[in-house]
Design brief:
The protein is mainly beta and 383 residues long. 3% of the residues lie in helices and 61% in strands. β11 and β12 form a beta hairpin. The two termini are 24 Å apart.
Length: 383
């Protein structure tokens, strides 16, 4: 059972929608699988998530249920890998590793005020450049710099934040300008092509950001500027472990394990900090596992089935993303019109973990029995 016979199936070892609703702000899963493909290779993918996140307000703040606050969102990824010599490979990978999208409904007063709702948009961009050294056909040692940007636009509204100023924080807004910062990634991979065995361990460093943040307060008489200051934020370090092995002709098993250091991850803009509040606060590290099977039916068609689990990043959680981990099941298919390129599609269903949302150390709402649907498409090309 040689690797050439399994090549199409191997590409399905991670569905395009493999990590679209992970703990904390984690999104893409930061895979380097494209860099570990044989020969010269390029890919581009597009993933969409449609979550439903509903809850019930704390009776002290308002009555009734809270409508869906999870916005649909999408993100692209792209990668190119060149085998420069028999022993040297070069790669460039783009993804959007962290983010958040939420808009609360106008139905309870808990997360809305005067026709405006609590809204959250956080965006990151990541560009990883890798250089790999292959001393033998079995080993690949790689490392390189990571360039990353972060920006955010968040508005807090409603009784969950103590009502309007001057006693509460309802009406508070923060805009974080896009700034770049640098980190690094390194890892190693081992493979035995004859049995389609491959194992890889990749470490990504934390990245320290210092961005310009403008905090304002919206009131009935207008928007008042509170502070413009530098905001310190550190995107977390992580480790990915990727495993695969052939089971039978044209069939392989795979697993991805991921750890993200969210423990004690805190973002505290100066004005909020002066009020004893954090914008984001996670208490636990994230652990996740995705495992499944891929099978190549013929030279053109292959399929994958996968299940996944994510621990979440602690509970209670911030009101900006009130879920704690998930269970998931996914299916994927791949069509290869020719030996050197393919089109891949995948869909994944998520059972989202129940969570309590808190601000100021007090639980303001409970979110239970929620779910999400992720789907995506990928195009790959060998040259």
């Amino acid at each position: 059972m040689k690797q050439t016979a399994l090549r199409s199936a191997i590409l399905l070892s991670l569905l395009p929608a493999s990590s679209v609703f992970a703990a904390g702000l984690d999104r893409s899963g930061q895979s380097v699988s494209a860099f570990l493909q044989p020969g010269n290779y390029a890919e581009a993918s597009f993933t969409v998530l449609d979550p439903t996140v509903e809850g019930t307000a704390n009776a002290k703040l308002g009555s009734g249920s809270l409508s869906d606050m999870g916005d649909d969102y999408y993100f692209p990824t792209a990668a190119v890998k060149v085998q420069a010599t028999d022993k040297i490979s070069l790669g460039l990978l783009y993804d959007q590793p962290f983010g958040a999208d939420a808009t609360y409904g106008l139905d309870s007063g808990v997360f809305n005020q005067n026709g405006e709702a609590t809204t959250v948009k956080v965006r990151t961009n990541n560009l990883t450049a890798l250089v790999g050294y292959q001393p033998t056909e079995n080993w690949n040692i790689y490392a390189g710099p990571v360039w990353q940007t972060v920006k955010a636009d968040i508005s807090l509204r409603g009784n969950a934040y103590g009502g309007p100023a001057p006693t509460g924080l309802s009406g508070y807004n923060i805009k974080v300008d896009q700034e770049d910062a640098y980190g690094w990634a390194a890892g190693f991979a081992y493979q035995i092509p004859k049995i389609a065995l491959k194992a890889a361990v990749t470490y990504r460093s934390e990245i320290k950001h210092k961005a310009k943040a403008t905090e304002t307060m919206t009131t009935p008489i207008g928007t008042l500027q509170l502070l413009t200051s530098d905001l310190d934020a550190i995107t977390p370090q992580s480790v990915n472990v990727d495993l695969q092995t052939g089971l039978a002709a044209n069939t392989l098993a795979f697993a991805n394990l991921r750890w993200v250091h969210w423990d004690q991850f805190v973002v505290s803009p100066k004005f909020l900090a002066s009020k004893g509040q954090d914008l984001i606060n996670y208490s636990d590290d994230q652990y996740s596992v995705t495992t499944g099977l891929s099978h190549k039916f013929n030279d053109q068609w292959a399929g994958t089935a996968a299940i996944g689990w994510d621990s979440g990043a602690g509970n209670p959680v911030t009101t900006l993303g009130p879920t704690e981990g998930y269970w998931s099941v996914g299916l994927g298919g791949q069509y290869s019109p020719a030996a050197n390129y393919f089109i891949q599609a995948g869909v994944k269903y998520f059972w989202l973990g129940d969570a309590e949302a808190q601000t100021g150390g007090e639980v303001k709402a409970s979110f239970t029995d929620n779910h999400a649907l992720g789907y995506g498409m990928k195009i790959g090309y060998r040259f």
